[in-house]
Amino acid sequence: MLWYIAKRLALLIPTLFGIVALNFFLIQLSPGGPVEQVISKLESTYASEAQAGLKARDYKASRGVPEGLITELEAQYGFDKPILERFALLVKSYVCFDLGTSYYRKIAVWDLIIEKLPVSISLGVFSTLFIYLLSIPLGIYKTRHNGSLLDSASSFVIIVCNAVPPFLFAVVGIVLFASVWQIFPLRGLVSDEFDSLSTMGKLLDYLHHLCLPVLCLSLGSLAWLTILSKHSFLDELHKPYVLTARAKGARESRILYHHVFRNAMLLVIASFPGAFLGMFLGGSLLIETLFSLDGLGLLGYESIVSRDYPVVFGTLYIFTLFALIVGIINDIVYMLIDPRIHFDTR
To answer: Per DSSP, what are the bridge partners of residue 101?
Structure first.
């Protein structure tokens, strides 16, 4: 196992480098960079100069902007250097985990990530816990009562939940539970009077604000994982080792939890990194927007729209590194659950 972990860690560096390099060159070579965005905002101010015939450099949005100002903007955003030199400086800073400073917010990218992290951690962790703690027992229950009326009814509900996108659940939840019935708060992660509450009151207020966003974010993945769990257990129950255990007189509960459980969990564990990262990063963008939660999903979207390159590349670097490490941990858990799996030998 140690040799396998060492090989995976060695492959992590070139993989991370390749992902960062690919995204860097794709984004840098695409039109509409930060310089063009600033020039576009200043274009109306210098309309009279544009009519006078002043010529800027190779920016389509720069008509009417003095050439000296464009040169200053290029130097300010680092575009006065060749693209390879900019990439080399980026890699050098990332080796030291220096993510730079946001173009527009004028604060360090690390500070910006730390500022937005509580919202994304709250949504990601609680959604993943809710999904796995509910879907696995529900999948086992549906396996034991396969074909019953309750199994069929719950399967219909699960299929509907799997088909409906999270933002639609959020819209319905906001209208019904937050606006009409006022069971849950409409927006934010905490109340306005949060600082004046006791410790238990702060915890309850925090969980109360999280209930509706987490529920709306989790329903689709919960349905999908329940179906996966059920069919994983059903597939294992028809294998020869289960028939042998039954022939020896083993109890059904012992067969299910002692023999089948670890084998059936392999597919569920395999889906964990994708489910967690989906909840933690991309999956929460619309939920954060609808519930006015200022997290990493919203930060990434706004940074891409405004071409805030330090934030875009910095968050990409950190979360790619995190995803690769989670993948290694996932393989280790594989080997711990099923001793038959040996990545060292293949």
So the answer is: 108
Which pLDDT does position 187 carry in this prediction? 80
Tokens matching residue 135: 């879907």
- In which element (H, E) is residue 215 found? helix 199-237
For the chain, the residue count is: 346
Contact 100, 311 (CB under 8 A): no
Helix (H, G, I), strand (E, B) or coil at 108: strand
What confidence tens digit (pLDDT) does each residue in 243-302 have?
Answer: 888 888 888 888 888 888 878 877 777 777 666 776 666 556 778 888 888 888 788 888
What integer pLDDT is reported at residue 162 of this predicted model?
84
DSSP state of 65: S
Query: What 3-state DSSP class applies to 266?
Result: helix
Single-letter amino acid code for the residue at 154 = S
Q: Which pairs with CB-CB distance under 8 Å and at least 24 residues apart come from 316-319?
A: 316/19, 316/20, 316/23, 317/16, 317/20, 317/94, 317/99, 318/99, 318/113, 319/277, 319/281
The phi-psi region of residue 53 (left if phi > 0; otherwise alpha if psi is between -120 and 50; otherwise beta) is: left
Tokens of 14: 């070139």
| List of residues 6+ apart from 257 with CB closer than 8 A | none
Give every CB contact of residue 26 below 8 A, 6+ residues apart in sequence: none
Per-residue burial over 13-44, b if 16 or more Cβ lie within 10 Å, else e, is eeebeebbeeebeeeeeeeebbbbbbbeebee
Q: Kindly give, in sequence order, each residue whose CB lies less than 8 Å from that of residue 78, ignoring residues fewer than 6 positions away.
A: 86, 89
| Contact call for residues 11 and 334 (beta carbons, < 8 A) | no
Closest by Cα among 235, 262, 237 to 252:
237
Measured distance CA(250)–CA(99) in Å, rounded: 58
Q: Are 35 and 67 in contact (CB under 8 A)?
A: no
CA distance 101 to 190: 28
Q: Count the alpha carbons within 13 Å of 86 in the hemisphere toward its beta carbon.
A: 20
Residue type at 55?
Answer: K
Whole-angstrom distance, CA of residue 123 vs CA of residue 217: 8
Helix count (H) and strand count (E) of the chain? 16, 0
